[in-house]
Amino acid sequence: MRVAVVGHVESILFAVVPHMPVAGEIVHAEQTFEEPAGGGAVSAVQLAKLVGEATLYTALGDDEFGHRAEDRLRELGLRVRTVWRAEPQRRGFVHLDSNAERTITVIGSRLGPRGDDPLPWHELAETDAVYFTAGDVGAARAARAAGVMVSTARGLDTLAQAGIELDALVWSSRDAGERYEAGDLNPPPRLVVRTAGSSGGEFETADGRHGRWDSTPLPGPPRDAYGC
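Given the sequence above, the corresponding structure tokens read:
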């Protein structure tokens, strides 16, 4: 099975802290580490773990952080198809507290691929499934060449302009930046999935079928609640 992600990367410095600092407070980090993150990178790495390989189509800043992120993504097993932008790589800082909650500060503009970038877009016609997190209208239309296209609601404006039919749209009931309402996209997605963190989530199909699911019990103590 061939899977891919069209999306963005953020170079993130994580600090493990006992709690989030309040205004003016100093907290001491128990541990720090740096990883390429962002919806595109994280999804691509997880897909590679599930099916054995995955390709990430992205844009990176042509600086130390961008090149370091590419190297790390390849170490994690991804095929990285990237263009280099003459602007800083988007970065971020994350507090990861004892409740496994992330509090995120992003630095810089989100970099996404464009349809006119010299990327091997033709490969997507031979890809079974693609997940779209960032890019312009041209990139979204290129992604639609895959057998199945799933997207996050963060790119809703771009998807609406592209006028493509999604096989599935995923949005969050707990994140104001990932909201979707019926009528936002034309044609509507075949499947709409609404996540609710530890409460599970709900789904609805274009023909009116719907249901919900409970979250899967954790196999051990929680380490990171983001996206779970």
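DSSP finds four helices and 13 strands in the chain. Try to locate this feature in the token string yourself.
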